[in-house]
Amino acid sequence: MSLVSLGHPYLLAGVLMASLAKRPNGMWRARYRDEAGKQHARHFTRKVDARRWLDGVTASKMAGTYVDPVIAKTTVREWCEQWLSGYASRRPSTVRQARTHIRLIEPPFGDRTLSSIRPSEVKAWTGSLQAQGYSSSYIYATYRRFAQVMGDAVHDGLIPRSPCSRRTSPGQGSQRPYVASTEQVWALYEAMEESFRPAVLLGAFVGLRTSEVAALRTSHVDFTAGVVRPEIQWPAHPLKSEASRWPVPVPLSLSEMLKTEHATVVANVLGEPVPPWSIERVMRATRSKVKGLPEGFRFHDLRHYFASLLIASGADVKVVQTRLRHASAMTTLNTYGHLWPDADESARAAVDAVLATRREATKKRGTGAATSGEGGTARG
């Protein structure tokens, strides 16, 4: 039975007034008022079509999936612009990253209405990004941004449900980071412009991120005690998390190598601070001079070397997490778990030790029983 009465309005669920009536020109007018009191109407040649339209509206209202027809015309591009304006309170680097992701979202979807995007189209889009040569991790990050944008559209009442779900999600891309050898790190250090050499030390032996290296003041380093205390990231923004502020102990020999008369630990020949992009530019220009370093080697990969150095020295997960200033040990394990040496052999040895103890105990019991039996025979 239709949800709509014929010829007179009625109240549905206390919020929707709907009616269906035949006009003098023979057309059927279906109309309703939403919870804000705004009237919406459509005209149909056939009564059955008018009733079907109203039934769909009332059913969506009852199911909680109703969207204002005017709002439903919002395009992906329009919503992305509005979404970015609300996202602008984040760190500038975070906002820049979001804008970069959205530049890949808008070409295929920008002119489409939010409600018209289908899950199959989302999957086809991520597949096209892969065909264009983007890495799996970057495709996943861009997809997650689209899922975030569409999820917020649902929360804002623009669409009833998001086309993004676990079924449309691409693989996260858990490519293992490249870890340079100690010889490669020192070769990179020697090949660097002299003013940029402290950056290599801070990346490889303190584990600082590029923006943290660029912003590190000499006042953030206790050269006497041997402690580096990151306080800000370039140019003077708060660090990404509270864990990023954890101090990193360093040997006094490294403190000596980091000493400078400039305001920042890394400075150009004029003594001025060096921005992150300059550090990356010099890294790209220098890495080809070091034998074996891959073409895509980044400054951040020095941080991976630092992690491997700690793990090879016998540091446990908690120590590595603290020195890398990860908020969670899970992040450390997910990224560097494969670097802990002899994990399989340690597990085998642990189980074998228990089995060996069991074998010895069984052997002793057997020997004791045999000795007792021989003694009884002798007494007989």
Neighbour order of strands in the largest sheet: 1-2-3-4
How would you classify the helix and strand content by structural class?
alpha+beta
State the end-to-end distance: 101 Å
- Total helical segments: 14
How many runs of DSSP E, i.e. beta strands?
9
Strand content: 5-15%
**Unreliable stretches:** 1-15
In the CATH hierarchy, what is the class of the largest domain? Mainly Alpha
Average pLDDT works out at: 85
Shape: extended
Largest sheet: 4 strands, antiparallel
Assigned CATH superfamily of the largest domain: Intergrase catalytic core
**Helix fraction by DSSP (H/I, runs of at least 4):** 40-55%
Structure description:
With 380 residues, this protein is α+β, with helices and mostly antiparallel strands. It folds into four domains: 57 residues, no CATH class; 80 residues, DNA polymerase, domain 1, CATH 1.10.150; 158 residues, Orthogonal Bundle (hpI Integrase, Chain A); 26 residues. Helix content is 50%, strand content 8%. The strands form three sheets. A four-stranded antiparallel sheet has the order 1-2-3-4, with helices on one face. The chain has a three-stranded antiparallel sheet with strand order 5-6-9. A two-stranded antiparallel ribbon has the order 7-8.
